[in-house]
Amino acid sequence: MLEILEPGMLVRHPGAPEWGVGQVQSRIGDKVTVNFAEAGKRVIDGRHVTLLIILPE
């Protein structure tokens, strides 16, 4: 799952919905950097969190 994440994709953090929609900035190994609307830039460990991909309408 982690392999399909690319910069520019929109995601949500399943454990922190209050962070709002985030845009993937980079993915290096298991680490994904996401800029969330309400929480700013966060580094997510993809081994422990499966980000929810927001598909374009």
UniProtKB/TrEMBL annotation:
Pfam families: DUF3553. InterPro entries: DUF3553. This is DUF3553 domain-containing protein.
